[in-house]
Amino acid sequence: MHIPSMKEVVSADEWQLRCDLAAAYRLVAHYGWSDLVFTHISARIPGPEHQFLINPYGLMFDEITASSLVKVDQHCNKLSDSPFPVNPAGFVIHSAIHAVRDDAGCVLHTHSRAGVAVSAQKCGILPISQQSTFVLGALAYHDYEGVALRDDEKPRLQADLGRANYLVLRNHGLLTVGKSVAEAFLNMYTFENTCRIQLDAQAGGELVYVNPDILKGVGAAMKQVTVGQGANLVWPALLRKLERLDPGYQT
Hints:
Elements: H1 12-30, E1 40-45, E2 51-54, E3 70-73, H2 88-100, E4 106-110, H3 113-119, H4 130-136, E5 139-142, H5 154-161, E6 166-169, E7 173-178, H6 181-202, H7 212-215, H8 218-225, H9 235-245
Parallel strand pairs: 5-6
Antiparallel strand pairs: 1-2, 1-4, 2-3, 4-7, 6-7
C-alpha cells in the first residue's frame, strides 16, 4: 500500500503534528491498547479553522503513518485526499469534545481489556495506587448509550466530561484529553496502568485505600516528579524507543 508523502504539501507545524499523532498510534499498538481498527486518536491542527487529524478507518494502528492520517473539519468533511473513510463513532466522540474544549489539542480513546473491565465496575476508579491518585484529581464518567453514532449524545458527553482530562466511558472504555499528543498519551498510560493495577489488586486480599488528604496535593507532586516539563519529559524518550522498534511512522 503506497500513500504519497504529505511532508512537502502541508505546513511544518502540521507535519510535526502528523508525526506525533502517528507515533501515538504506533505506541498504542506497541503497548497493546488497540482494538484492531476500532478506536481512535484525534489531534487539532492549530489555527481558527477547526480542523483535525484522525486515523484512516481500516488501517491497523501499527500501519498508520504521518501521511495517511485524514484531515477533517468539524462536520467530518475530508479536507485531504484519502482512500479511507473516517470512523463515524470516532468522529461523534472526538468532534463533541473538541467543540467545547479549547485546551483539547489531542483526544485519545481506547477499548483496552483492563479499561473496559473497570468501566463496567460500579465502584469505578478506586484510590488504591499512586497511579490512581493522578487520575482521580481530574476524572469524570459518562454512561453507556450504545455505539456513539448519534449527535444527540454529544451534549451529555460534553456535560459529563466538563473540564476533566480522564473519562471513563461506562461499559465502553477509557478516554483522555491533553493539550498535546504527548500529554494525552501520558494521561492514557497512567489511566491504563491504574485500571490494570486495580484489577490485579482486586484479585488478591483486602484493599488498602490512599488517604484522601494525599489526593489534594497530587497536581503539585506531578509537576515536581516531571521537573516542570509534564509529558514533554517522557515524550522524546518514547519517540527514541519508537525509532528503535518501528520507525516507519514518519513517512
